[in-house]
Design brief:
The chain is mostly helical. It has one domain. α2 crosses α4.
Length: 112
Amino acid sequence: MSDVILESVKEDLGIPLTVDAFDSSLIRNINSVFMILTEFGIGERGFSLTSGDEEWSDYLKDIDQLETVRTYVYLRVRMVFDPPTTSFVLQAFKDQIAELEFRLNVLVDPIV
């Protein structure tokens, strides 16, 4: 699995790394998800992909959040870029996104 953000999202979406036709759209969608994560208090404030060569460690210093954030970014991008075609899968994606949002919020602001 790649440490480069754009490459890892492409891998998750099943897009070959050699195909760059969708890169600008993917970068735009990834940056939108980063804005949402910033509102949760996750990641480097003001971070955005510009070259497509940025790595996860450039964005996220807390390694404990990494896999959850990677999954969240993939699901959010997938919902815009290539949404599921069946209502069952679509609802499963929505439920997973909601679950991850709750858990990320708890990471930032623990319930005591």
